[in-house]
Write a structure and sequence with these properties.
Blueprint: H1 3-29, H2 32-36, E1 39-46, E2 54-55, H3 57-70, E3 75-84, E4 87-97, E5 111-123, E6 126-134, H4 136-143
Parallel strand pairs: 1-6
Antiparallel strand pairs: 1-2, 3-4, 4-5, 5-6
């Protein structure tokens, strides 16, 4: 058994896990400049509903900014996170108050809580790619206007 190879692999996965914790903290604090610095220049975002990935650090910034504008008191709780090779998988909960427009729905002032399953791929000490699956139906159900009763 090659313990030095195992030690290197373990230190790499631990480093990746620590980097993801930092990434979530920077987003939660609203420090979008710091979060962007954790990404490779040609960062790849694989988002639900889009046939092709989006390329570039600004994708992360725009997504984070949209969350902050919609939920200005955003709290992020990592519920589960593990790493294998160059990937980190996260089950995360987002909570906040709907204080700004989100997906075309004006602020409702409602408390919102939703989960996302996310996979990140690393190159060196940077996040190179993400695959995210937020519970958009859950979010929209919490912020959509109540149906009006017709008489």
């Amino acid at each position: 058994m090659n313990t030095s190879a195992n030690t290197t692999a373990n230190s790499t996965t631990e480093k990746n896990l620590a980097l993801m914790r930092t990434a979530y903290k920077t987003v939660e604090s609203g420090d979008l400049d710091a979060s962007v610095e954790l990404l490779t220049e040609n960062f790849i975002a694989n988002l639900p509903g889009l046939p092709d990935p989006l390329i570039g650090r600004e994708i992360w910034r725009l997504g984070s900014q949209a969350m902050w504008e919609a939920f200005p008191d955003l709290k992020i709780t990592v519920e589960d996170m593990f790493a294998v090779d160059d990937k980190v998988v996260v089950r995360v909960r987002f909570q906040g108050t709907h204080g700004g427009t989100f997906q075309g729905v004006a602020a409702t002032g409602r408390a919102v809580s939703f989960r996302s399953i996310e996979i990140y791929r690393f190159e060196g000490d940077k996040v190179a790619e993400e695959w995210v699956a937020p519970d958009l139906m859950g979010i929209m159900g919490q912020i959509s206007p109540a149906p009006t009763a017709e008489h």
